[in-house]
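Researcher: Batch entry, complex prediction.
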Amino acid sequence: MSDDMSDDMNSEHRSSTIQGGIFPVVMAGGSGTRFWPLSRQHLPKQFLSMGGEESLIAATMSRLTHIAEWADRYVVAGEHHKEGVITHCPSLPESNLLVEPCARNTAPCVALAAHHIASRDPQGVIILLPADHHISDISAFQTALLSAVEGAREGKIMTLGVIPTRAETGYGYIKYPGGGLDNQSRLSAERFVEKPPKRVAEEYLASGQYLWNSGVFIFSVERILTELNAQLPKLMTSLAPVRAAIEALDEAAYTEALDEAFMEIKGVSIDVGVMESADELEVIPLRAGWSDVGHWGALSEVNPVDEHHNVLIGHPEHLALNSREVTVYSDRFTAVVGLEGVVVVNTDDATLVCARESAQDVRLVIERLRHKGLKELT
Amino acid sequence: MSDDMSDDMNSEHRSSTIQGGIFPVVMAGGSGTRFWPLSRQHLPKQFLSMGGEESLIAATMSRLTHIAEWADRYVVAGEHHKEGVITHCPSLPESNLLVEPCARNTAPCVALAAHHIASRDPQGVIILLPADHHISDISAFQTALLSAVEGAREGKIMTLGVIPTRAETGYGYIKYPGGGLDNQSRLSAERFVEKPPKRVAEEYLASGQYLWNSGVFIFSVERILTELNAQLPKLMTSLAPVRAAIEALDEAAYTEALDEAFMEIKGVSIDVGVMESADELEVIPLRAGWSDVGHWGALSEVNPVDEHHNVLIGHPEHLALNSREVTVYSDRFTAVVGLEGVVVVNTDDATLVCARESAQDVRLVIERLRHKGLKELT
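Model: Structure tokens for the complex:
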């Protein structure tokens, strides 16, 4: 932790809390099929810019400036995304890139990172972050994170809950008492709920007592290891040889133990595996222009729109004529005429033209291409 | 005219008619802005295949097999389309490509061709054809043409009128007494009417007394020169030096006279300038799968459609998922998801995505591009 950080953290809680460093853990395991044809098997969403200046993972790292040094940041990714992480995070120390032998969802990823960080700083605090989300108000986000770190140092599991702006059915929700609009209020996280149907989402929005689950969690190493041991004992038993190899600084043993562990462990998310049953969970309501950039239609949430809500990216002269809510992502000049709610994406070898409301169906295109043996297009 | 043709024409009318050859005149002056981005200023619609095996002009020529030899066929085109005509009609004698100094609509084009043909065969019959239409039933078309040639030899102005299959508002109509579904009935062409509004088009369709104006006319050289002299005397006066140069075989004088004439003459269509006021005009109702291929939406009229009325051209694996009435024209693999009535066209430097019903608005895109100084895209 940097010196200025120590000053920032100089709150009244501080004397009663643990004093370890802050260790962001960025989860970059996504395969990003929903952004076909731009995203491909080896080029998932986190490595794309989605219209911004940086790739989503680079922007995720930029948002951690003044929160943690590069030496304290970790990225967890699969073998085939290793190169991408190195390219997009050139300042990341090689040993802080934790490579998973295979995808096993987020709980094993968190456990692996916790073991690494525990061996460096048993009093450390982890900020767990998805690599591929968008946040426009960095200052608001950092305010929330620092408030969350305080909570984590008191032993709480903290999460950021996004104040909803619409009755979204594509996100999970967190029930809370309501209020707390200053980006630093710590409130009780009463319950996690899965993606709701439209009618329920509308009730949630109207109630003012539900937040979107951002996937950002903040906890001490000590607390998360306690939870993992209690709630996912099998996973932790499988990972014990990995921890031993880390402590022994034995690289060969580490690789072998990791391969073996990941072969036998069950894939489970940290939300379901730990968070939903954890006590003393607090949420900080966040209003910072967050989006999970979950599908092509979401580009209008993370880019400037024109007066007809069109988002035109990639060529300065793109033209939307008599059109509304059109998203164009193409280096080639594109004219859209007389259409509403359409997404157009052009790459060198494939074009997608999709109703915005059908953006989730892009995965069906990939399925069809695989079925037809056209893997080079997926 | 070939020898087999003389046999074909051996009808009862023949003895009372003029005996000249048959001279098709193909008008290839179109600029084809409606097929942007595929058609460009130097690549108008007649040089495109529109999904077929040949370009539209090559197909127009193929439909004249057994009707007229190459030596008797003429093409009228602008200077900047000369190369295209030579490429797509390699068998056309060089002297049969009549180059207009500038576009002046169809009446001057017909007059110019009539002068050339009159100097070769004053008893000749002209078949005037647009270069860029589609006809699926060649045999039916040729039957109609030969019947029309008989009429032309009797001194009539003949036209082919397409039996309408829908209440189209994009075509002109010809009023006739009704009936005549055998592709060779010669019936009175009572009146030409301009593109009607929807309600009127519906009445026309229901009445069975209206045909679409195909733009195909058949007349003797003698008759058309008489009409032109009577109805467009100024035009003919301007062209007199051109005719003189043709007769004198004086190429330099011809070029000079043509440039001068086209500078001063007024652009007018043969329909408005001559046909609408001509007497003794007969129409042959045509049922031959005709389309003027007037805009992108018309591709479904001239290409095979799938069970959801999608037309997918250019890549064998194009995918239309949960989509209807989609037209794709692209060499690049294209997936269309969840859309209805959309046209997608991809070229190397531009993409068009357009509501099928807005296909006529493509010209607005070109206007906008010109206005922005992006002529290289037009």
